[in-house]
Amino acid sequence: MPVVIDEVQVEAARPRGEGEAAPRAPGPQRPLSRHEFREMLRREDHRRARLEAD
C-alpha cells in the first residue's frame, strides 16, 4: 500500500519475495584499472574547469 510522505508517494517497505534480488547500486562491478581511474579524474577536472570558466 502506498504511503504519502510530504506529498510524495513512496512504496511501502515490504519483505522481498523468495529469489527476488536486492536492489544494487549501479556502476562498474570490477575495480577500475589505473588507466580508467586516471581517465575518470581527467574528465572530472575538465568538467570542473568548464563549470568554473562560466
From TrEMBL:
Highest taxon in the source lineage: Bacteria
Region (Disordered): 1-54
Basic and acidic residues: compositionally biased ranges: 33-54
Protein name per the record: Uncharacterized protein
